[in-house]
Amino acid sequence: MTVLASSLGLGASALQAQEAGEVEQLKRQLQQMRENFDKAQREHREQMEALTKKLEALAAQPPATAAAAAAAETPEEPLSSPWRPSDPIRVGRGSAYMDIGLVGTFAAGGSTADDIEGGTQLGGHDPNQNGFTIQGVELNLMGAIDPYFRGNANVLFGVDSEGESFIELEEAWLETIALPGNFQVRAGQYLSEFGRINTQHPHSWSFVDTPLVNARFLGPDGLRNPGARLSWLAPTPFYSELFLGIQDSHGETAASFRSSGHSHGGHDEDPLPFAYRHRDNDRGVDGIGDLLFTPRLAMSFDVTDNQVLLLGASAAFGPNSSGMTGDTSTQIYGVDVTWKWKSPSAHAGFPFVMWQTEAMLRRYDAGMFDWQEEADAGEEAIIDENTGDPALLSRETLTDYGFYTQLLWGFRKGWVAGLRYDYVTGEKGDYEKMNLSYDDSVLGRDPERNRRWRLAPNLTWYPSEYSKVRLQYNYDDRRDIGSDHSVWLQFEFLLGAHAAHKF
Question: Dihedrals φ, ψ of 118, to 5°?
Fold first, then answer.
């Protein structure tokens, strides 16, 4: 018993000593953490004071001097840093530099339609044939011109369905970065600020092709032309910005206005032009009323910590060159709504749900047109079957409208499922009610204004932020033509720098 009691006593003493040692160790650790915390606070406070003094010193300098000083103090990246595909390929440094980027977008697939380019697929960068399509290889140049301006240029290489290569300047503009009063000016060749899709390049799209209403109303390549744009960021508690663009109103990139009617890639005019009237009365620019005006209001609200709502209203006003008279015009109105939800536990932006819708209405003044001139020139003419003579089309106003709505679900990192519905139609014009024929074929509704709709589900995989693979199915239904099925596989890569995509 004595031995047992002694053993128990020794065990208890050892246990107490061990506990005492652990307590002392924990106390020392706690004291060390407190000292480290106090040290970190002092260092952060010193860094904040140094940055505050630097900002005050820069604020006291003239703008050009402050910008140059800030640029000079910006540390360069270590030379040993490994290059990534999205890192800038930079020419120059400081307040004047240029970043170079390249985006290649391709598609493969097929359709039951006989008229893919300009038929089921209206967009200039849509898949245009069975087999493979180069949707675009885009060279992007962007950077700082000086402390007052930045610049951007997008040069695109493509191949049409006939195998003909073409190069086009999509955008090239300079933009102010230091105007007072939250104003900004952009000037050059730029995509008009109309709705959500028109300002985006094809690699920013959530679907393989452009929405039907955008291609029909704003043109296969979108609404863009040389001009200038003024924007003002309003001092409201939420994001609110006003835009006003003034651009040239002629050319194939102003499809509903003074367009020649030529399709993307430089093809000849279609045998049956829009509204059955050739656009051959272009009066040029005699005054400010012959230019294209595009006002827009864009607003954004945080509905909750995880939900954002964007609202927009746009318009485009300008002359058109239809018929034989010189005082015809076009008005396009649009509204857009975008809502996005992101999970509170999102990682790298996933999971998320995004819904986007745009609706447009177009009023097109069609001028008078006499097909007798075509007949006198020995060309095929539209015939009025009631008289047997070349048709004489009276002046009238045509009304068309359409919309698209799309839903995206980023269900896991790198994977997005999408569904889009498109619908476009037009009110029947007087010329469509006439008993007309062309090349011994009876004419009815204008195919460029007739009702059609599309349903397009897709699945996109982003292996990384530098590449994309997308599979999409299209069901197209065109009144008086029928339905068609298409399947497209799109793949894309990015090298170098590229402007951030707008949400």
Answer: 80, -5
